[in-house]
Design brief:
mainly beta, Jelly Rolls, 8 domains, 8-stranded antiparallel beta sheet
Length: 1235
């Protein structure tokens, strides 16, 4: 054992057992024990499979001394005869010592062996069998990736087929009264993967009516059958192992199953037992035997893509000159050297490699001489592929999977010079500079002679390194699919990646929504009114939906429309035959519930115009018309009242036409009347259906209109709690975060440290804390040992200002972000534990030990898209109060457009450094007039502190395969020039982004991310934007997804050809470009023309270049060419635009009004007169106040100057300080600016 390269101990149980646990112990009275090991099992002793625990971990924890017994229970019992224990680690001061014990019970089985040309037929006692419930179970192991296990069909169109296809199990099931020949192709439900591994797999099918559960091993699919019936009707027989053709014995419609079946039960009937006893119900086709044949296909696994190799000597060639090699392999890796052989005469050599998922054969000659051919077939799909390489008659032929793929000519007759190398090779024999093969290999033949891999393992033949024999240790990392929200999974041998394009989510596992959670959130980042996609539950399961965000008022309204947008006339309806209309909203029921429950207030207007059409029966008060709430419950109140009160708004306002009735329409007059109400009870909104039942009398008519759902406020944004005792905390139910979790919140404190959040398990835990005044730490343990991420700020975080924290952990990586500092990333270990198992309550603001508690405020706590109501829990918790004191803790937006509210001892100021706007509250447009020669160039230069923070995580980031590329661009412009250059962003690697106006005045967005490809060009609208009016542009990119909004239009989505990031951003230029750039010709023309007009409020990520140009004219970061004049052109143009919009909105509203228009006109005139008088009085008051202040100006000069200085300082905070502060406002994609 000391000299064995790969030692192991093997246990033969003599017969099949169901093993449930194993235990180990060290050598008696010694320093020898094994501290960790892997477990292999086999029922033949030749082909082995590695046991993996529930989350894919293969390593078992062993002993820490020689005497204690350590037992490991198997999460899934295995039925096997042989077990093999392979030590991984042992006592470093001793040696390997291992005593083992196996726990389990005996296992009886009925086995049938199918040779690929046979089947068993179970024939019914009657012509057909019709069942409402079916239970089918079996175990199988297969030699091939294709084959039918089960089939039955009926004449009316029913069928059931269970079939292996490409190593997966497909179930076709249809219950239908119609024949299938009139229908399109069958659709399969697919479960499992790599099922052709010659090991046992269990299958269980349960069907009741149309509901079906299909389970393969531990993976289950729940689905509903196709067709209209509820019973499965099968004629004559069920076949197992194939589909025989009627009347032609030995002929089958599909490829038969080749392998063994065990314990095959159909509705409690033991099919194999009946066949073995030769019962008349069973008919055997072909050669079916009742013992499982021993497989001869023994594989080996190349474990490393850098150091694994298998060196085999060349066997004696045949009489004809040349050589041949034949083998089978399977892998997930798209690249790797598969085989190489040196040739005579020297220095020729032949290489067969996998490149881009395809096989590529290369013949290297002398010097630069080289001949190369490719197959065009994808071989990195995890399936077995056969390769036959043969040299004969000055040609080398390559055959893949039995088909001739390519031929290359030799320059002269060659022969193998020495060994054949599979994978890599020893360093003294060759130099391999690229990745080598990582996967499984079997059935190796050299010059027609089979290679006995057991001899290689025993050292009697060839040489090897980093190879595991007798097993193919392949696993499907995309089963189950750990990509969330519909992300597409792809994999290599050691990891998987998620393609999130088109899902609306981003991140390593498509966990994070790329949309804001509410219209309120869009308002806080500086957006204006328009159509937006919101994701009301963030990273939760609901997905995004499109709404209209109305930000023209003090409140931000979320408007969700439905399918009935115009008033509807109703006649001839009665209680026996009522009129019914269902309302379908632009959001799903779950999304609507999330929007309503997350808003402070919601409402929906219901207008009912009537003529001889009552809402309530005047005799008994029963409703004649009603509506259904979101749960489908019947409601008969019509606004203005609490639920259950059958009245209308006019009754509350005491202005009904007839005070004897509670609704105007109940007066039942021949003239038109109106009942309009606002439904505002949130638990009942929105309206899902309206029913009208009193328009069947002569002259009876109704016109109704149900408005869109309108909500305002976001309850979570300012939901806060204050902790003023270190031992106090809030507790919530256990965090549901097994595979992924994201935690985000804001905090402010003056304490130097404290725990924000903690949840414990038996061994696992997750914690977020302020570990020092300038460091936030995120730590967790899922069974691989504690993982710690820390973000350090160059400024203290206990400054009594709000700071943002977001921590995420998933099966691929963990991340931590604080404010706008660059995020830290930590990759999860390969083949480590995946599930975070927690059991205690979730503690907020403290710990279970009541130590290291947090002192300060926490708000907007969200976990996996669910907002926590801190205020409600704080009201009943000692040491914690709801809300948070301070000017910057309220729901009113004191600072606008990304401005940050900063507490002062006697008030607050707005930090506008991250905003493109100015003013005391960051709401003033920063506008500049350009002429043809004007330009502003902002040069990106990375602060040392940020660079240092990034360098420590460079390794983890560089290995990240899912793109974190992200840009946010926003600006406004007014021009009549075309073509024109609006904005360009260029990098040192010759990438660029350009936003131009084309010759026809249309907007064009150019993205050139890969220099070897043509740029992506997008023209969102064909209309001319060089029309002298103000236009607002918003551009947002995440990976390949590009979102563009022009003015109030909806967000248009485009897909880029690449998700590459901008590497080493050099500069951003507004207006004319004077530097020689590698632009496309059309972009160059616009760059040369420059820009004539007004640019306003330009923002690129968290940099405001136009504002920087005005406030840092002497800075080395900003270069100004030509005349540049600050103006209010943006504000003037915007005010004109708002007037036009208001007129249009007013006109639209006027067109929608009905019968009561004259009364509303009088109200409008009265309102206008009142407003004019009010404005005049206010103007006189303001003038008087100004005169009064002018008289006192001399006496208050000193105090007012200090106030003005503070206000002036707050307009452009941080821009007149240092360049370091200017650049620390960069967003989470700071790594774009450098490698």
């Amino acid at each position: 054992m000391v000299t064995d390269q790969d030692p192991w101990i093997q246990v033969d149980l003599r017969e099949q057992f169901e093993v449930t646990a194993v235990a180990t112990q060290g050598r008696y009275d010694s320093w020898d024990w094994v501290s960790s090991y892997t477990l292999l099992y086999s029922d033949t002793g030749r082909a082995w499979k590695q046991y993996r625990q529930e989350d894919g971990v293969s390593r078992f924890v062993g002993n820490v001394n020689s005497e204690a017994v350590v037992q490991n229970k198997l999460s899934q019992p295995v039925r096997t005869r042989f077990l093999r224990f392979i030590p991984l680690d042992w006592n470093p001061t001793g040696w390997m010592g291992l005593r083992v014990e196996v726990y389990g019970c005996s296992y009886k089985s009925y086995v049938a062996d199918f040779d690929g040309r046979s089947s068993l037929l179970y024939r019914f006692n009657q012509k057909s069998m019709s069942t409402v419930k079916d239970v089918i179970s079996l175990r199988f192991k297969s030699h091939q990736a294709e084959g039918v296990l089960l089939h039955g069909e009926g004449q009316r169109g029913d069928y059931i087929t269970l079939e292996l296809h490409r190593g997966r199990l497909d179930l076709y099931l249809n219950l239908d009264d119609n024949r299938l020949k009139f229908r399109s192709g069958r659709v399969a439900v697919t479960v499992g993967s790599l099922l052709d591994d010659q090991h046992w797999h269990s299958v269980h099918i349960e069907r009741f009516n149309k509901q079906v559960n299909l389970t393969v091993d531990t993976h289950t699919q729940h689905f509903q059958t196709k067709g209209e019936g509820h019973s499965l009707e099968v004629d004559y027989e069920l076949s197992f192992g194939g589909i025989p053709l009627p009347g032609k014995p030995g002929t089958f419609l599909r490829k038969n199953f080749h392998g063994c079946m065990e314990n095959l039960y159909y509705n409690t009937i033991n099919i194999i037992d009946l066949a073995k006893r030769r019962k008349p119900q069973i008919h055997s086709v072909g050669n079916v035997t009742f013992s499982c044949s021993q497989p001869q296909l023994v594989a080996c696994t190349f474990l490393s893509s850098s150091s694994s190799f298998l060196s085999l000597p060349s066997a004696a060639a045949s009489a004809t000159e040349g050589f041949s090699v034949r083998f089978q392999f399977r892998t997930w890796n798209p690249d790797g050297l598969l085989m190489s052989v040196p040739l005579n005469p020297e220095p020729q050599r032949l290489e067969l490699r996998i490149s881009g998922g395809q096989l590529r054969l290369t013949l290297h000659g002398t010097g630069q001489q080289k001949s190369e051919v490719a197959t065009g077939l994808r071989v990195s799909d995890g399936l077995w592929h056969s390769v036959n390489l043969e040299s004969r008659n000055l040609q080398i032929t390559l055959t893949v999977d039995g088909e001739l793929c390519s031929t290359t000519d030799l320059w002269e007759q060659v022969e193998a010079r020495s060994n054949f190398y599979f994978g890599g090779c020893p360093t003294f024999d060759c130099q391999v500079r690229t990745a080598t093969f990582q996967g499984c290999m079997r059935l190796v033949f050299i010059n027609g002679q089979p290679v006995n891999l057991s001899h290689v393992q025993q050292g009697a033949l060839g040489n090897y390194n980093e190879i595991q024999f007798d097993t193919c240790n392949i696993r499907d990392r995309c089963l189950p699919n750990l990509c969330e929200h519909g992300g597409r999974c792809s994999q290599t041998w050691t990891s998987f990646t998620c393609d999130c394009s088109g899902t609306g989510y981003s991140g390593a596992t498509c966990h994070n929504s790329i949309y804001e959670a509410s219209c309120e959130a869009y308002k806080l980042i500086g957006s204006s009114s328009g159509f937006y996609s919101i994701d009301p539950d963030g990273s939760g399961p609901l997905g995004p939906t499109q709404v209209y965000c109305n930000m023209t008022e003090e409140r931000v309204w979320t408007v969700v429309p439905h399918n009935v947008t115009t008033p509807v006339t109703v006649q001839s309806s009665s209680l026996h035959k009522p009129y019914v209309m269902d309302f379908n909203y632009s959001a799903t029921a779950g999304q609507l519930h999330a929007i309503v429950s997350g808003s402070e207030q919601c409402q929906q207007e219901v207008v009912y115009n009537c003529r001889k059409s009552r809402l309530f029966n005047t005799r008994d008060g029963s409703p004649l018309s009603w509506w259904l709430d979101r749960e489908g419950e019947k409601r008969s109140y019509w606004g203005g009242f609490l639920p259950g009160v059958q009245q209308c708004s006019c009754s509350l306002e005491e202005n009904c036409l007839d005070m004897n009735y509670f609704c105007n329409c109940d007066a039942d007059t021949d003239t038109w009347a109106n009942d309009t109400g606002i439904l505002s009870y949130k638990d009942h909104l929105p309206v899902s259906q309206i029913v009208i039942g009193d328009t069947n009398r002569t002259g009876s008519q109704a016109v109704y209109h149900v408005g869109p759902l309108r909500c305002y406020g976001d309850k979570s944004i300012w939901n806060a709690a204050s902790f003023y005792q270190e031992s106090s905390y809030l507790y919530f139910p256990t965090l549901q975060a097994e595979l992924s979790s994201d935690i985000s919140f804001y905090f402010k404190t003056s304490a130097p440290s404290g725990v924000f959040l903690e949840n414990l398990g038996l061994k696992d835990f997750i914690r977020v804390e302020l570990s020092s005044p300038s460091v936030v730490t995120f730590s967790f343990d899922v069974g691989n040992g504690p993982a710690i991420l820390s973000v350090k700020s160059h400024l203290p975080l206990n400054d009594r200002q709000w700071h943002y924290v977001r921590a995420e952990r998933n099966v691929r990586e963990a991340s931590l972000q604080v404010d706008q500092l660059p995020p830290r990333f930590l990759e999860a270990p390969t083949d480590g534990h995946l599930r975070l198992r927690l059991s205690s309550q979730l503690f907020i603001g403290g710990t279970a030990s009541q130590q290291r508690g947090f002192l300060g405020c926490i708000r907007t706590l969200t976990v996996n898209g669910v907002s926590f109501d801190l205020e409600e829990r704080a009201r009943m918790t000692p040491g914690v109060s709801s809300g948070c004191p301070g000017y910057c803790s309220g729901s009113s937006s004191l600072c606008h457009n990304r401005g940050r509210c900063i507490e002062k001892s006697n008030g607050y100021i707005c930090d506008c450094s991250q905003s493109a706007y100015g003013g005391t509250t960051c709401n003033q447009e920063v506008s500049v007039s350009f002429d043809r020669e004007s330009s502003v160039t902002y040069t990106f230069q990375e602060p040392f502190s940020v660079m240092q923070n990034r360098s420590s995580q460079a390794t983890s980031v560089s290995t990240e395969s899912s793109s974190r590329a992200r840009e946010d661009v926003a600006f406004s412009f007014v021009t009549s020039q075309r073509p024109a250059m609006l904005l360009t962003v260029s990098t040192f690697s010759h990438q660029y982004i350009a936003v131009i106006l084309a010759k026809n005045g249309s907007l064009q967005i150019w993205y050139h991310l890969q220099t070897d490809r043509r740029p992506d060009i997008f023209s969102p609208v064909p209309s001319n934007l060089a029309d002298g009016r103000l236009h607002r542009i918003r551009i947002h990119r995440v990976g390949k997804n590009l979102y563009v909004q022009i003015d109030q239009d909806i967000h248009r989505k485009y897909t880029l050809s690449s998700d590459a990031e901008l590497i080493l951003i050099r500069s951003l230029t507004l207006g004319k470009v004077t530097r020689r750039e590698t632009f496309n010709e059309e972009v160059m023309q616009a760059a040369a023309k420059g820009f004539v007009g007004c640019l306003s409020s330009v923002q690129f990520n968290h940099v405001a270049p136009l504002k920087a140009a005005l406030t840092n004219r002497g800075s080395s970061l900003v270069t100004i060419r030509g005349p540049l004049v600050q103006s209010n052109c943006g504000a003037l143009a915007e005010s004109t635009s708002h007037i036009l919009q208001d007129q249009a909105v007013t006109a639209n509203k006027d067109n929608e009004q009905h019968s009561s228009g004259s009364q509303r006109d009088l109200a409008v005139i009265a309102g206008v007169v009142t407003a004019v008088v009010f404005i005049a009085v206010c103007a006189l008051a303001v003038m008087s106040r100004l005169l009064y202040q002018q008289r006192r100006a001399q006496r208050t000069a000193s105090s007012s100057s200090s106030i003005k200085e503070e206000h002036r300082h707050s307009m452009y905070t941080d821009y007149r300080t240092t360049e370091l502060q200017l650049h620390n406002s960069i967003r989470d994609n700071m790594k774009e600016y450098y490698i």
